[in-house]
Design brief:
Layout (H helix, E strand, L loop, with lengths): L6 E5 L3 H11 L4 E5 L2 H10 L4 E4 L8 H10 L7 E6 L4 H9 L4 E4 L4 H55 L8 H15 L4 H13 L9 H4 L7 H7 L2 H9 L8 H6 L21 H15 L11 H10 L7 H9 L27 H12 L1
Helix pairs in contact: 2-3, 6-7, 6-12, 7-12, 12-13
The structure holds fe (ii) ion.
The site of fe (ii) ion (FE2) has 6 residues, from loops.
């Protein structure tokens, strides 16, 4: 007898029956013996048999109750149970299967039948175990592959963001910070994790269309001619065209397309209004302007966070979605933008419209240029 042989627990209050079964099955298995239900359950607490051959009619705890308890216990529910009993009425046989037994043998039984049925169930159990083991291996492999792909995806998106930003050192980190603020606002709005992730990815890539904007325009201090503004304003469309090629599980290209649209229809490129603009893009718009106002640009200095807060408050319901602004304001303590380490205020260009303060003027320009 070896440890590798399957273990069978024989439960019967009649020693003659136990000896009979031992005699039939000897050689191929190891055995445990219990002469009543309580002892059977106690045996299961210490051992893990592959199969239980269970008598039904026993004093105190009968076989049906033992089987019910085995199947209700998460530690033992996988142990297979075969009833061996003199109760041959169909209703008892049905009950035996109902409470979880895999087989029901009636007495008097034939040796060959018991041997064959036990062997069949042992083989089935082995196959089930092999299948489970295989499933665990496959699940591990899928999990590892998924993690690998997720890391590769994040690195690719990060690389794309960096590629766009590397052309303009003044906006380095802009997209990462926008992604951070936008996902913080989205989480504060209690949006589902999947939607928050879509917003984060859109934030990381929202200005990728600037890859086609001449560097000389991106970081040039001073006024831009109308034609130059128009060129900068093509970046949402360019971003859309680049991103729509990628089969993201979210509408990233469309969100990026809409990130300069404004609630009152004064945004670009399509002048969408209100709910025509995706919620993700409305969130991105607020995060984008907050980050832009509080960061240094070659054509204006970084402005204090109060300017950003005032701006979104004053434009709530006009340029920006009310719900998104409220969410940002209620969480602004937690998602206050951080000034870039190298932020250095520079000369402010004269305002184009004289009634505006330099700060107001800068903010107006941010909506178009950022
Ligand atoms: Fe933009």
């Amino acid at each position: 007898m070896t440890e590798n042989q399957p273990l069978i627990l024989i439960v019967d209050d009649n020693s003659i029956n136990i000896d009979l079964l031992l005699n039939i099955l000897k050689g191929e298995y190891r055995f445990g013996i219990a002469k009543n239900g309580a002892k059977a359950l106690a045996y299961l607490d210490r051992n893990k048999p592959d199969l239980v051959l269970l008598d039904v009619m026993m004093p105190e705890i009968d076989g049906f109750e033992v089987c019910t308890k085995i199947k209700a216990d998460p530690l033992h529910k996988d142990v297979e149970v075969i009833f061996i009993t003199a109760l041959s009425d169909a209703k008892y046989i049905a009950k035996g299967f109902e409470i979880g037994a895999v087989d029901y043998i009636t007495k008097p039984f034939k040796s060959a039948e018991v041997k064959a049925r036990v062997q069949t169930h042992m083989s089935l159990k082995k196959m089930k175990q092999a299948l489970n083991d295989q499933n665990i291996i496959l699940e591990d492999q899928v999990q590892n592959k998924t993690t690998e792909l997720q890391e590769m995806f994040n690195a690719t998106v990060g690389g794309m963001a960096l590629m766009a930003e590397s052309r303009d050192p003044y906006t380095a980190g802009h997209q990462h910070r926008v992604a951070q603020y936008a996902s913080d606002i989205a989480r504060n709005m209690k949006l589902p994790d999947d939607q928050v992730e879509a917003i984060r990815i859109s934030g990381l890539l929202h200005d990728i269309g600037k890859i086609r904007t001449p560097v000389s325009l991106l970081n040039r201090p001073g006024k831009l001619f109308t034609a130059e503004w128009e060129l900068i304003k093509t970046h949402p469309v360019v971003g859309y065209k680049i991103l729509k090629q990628i089969p993201f599980p979210w509408p990233i290209a469309e969100i990026v397309y809409q990130h300069h649209e404004r609630i009152n229809g004064t945004g670009y490129p399509r002048g969408l209004k209100g709910d025509e603009i995706l919620l993700e893009a409305r969130i991105l718009a607020v995060a984008d302007v907050i980050e832009a106002i509080s960061s240094h640009r070659p054509y204006r200095p970084a402005l204090p966070i109060e300017s950003a807060l005032d701006e979104v408050k004053s434009q709530k319901g006009k340029l920006f979605d009310e719900m998104v602004v409220d969410s940002f304001l209620s969480a602004s303590g937690r998602i206050t933008p951080k000034m870039p380490a190298d932020a250095e205020p520079v000369r402010i260009e004269p305002a184009e419209e004289t009634e505006m303060s330099p700060a107001e003027h800068s903010i107006r320009r941010i909506h178009a240029r950022n």
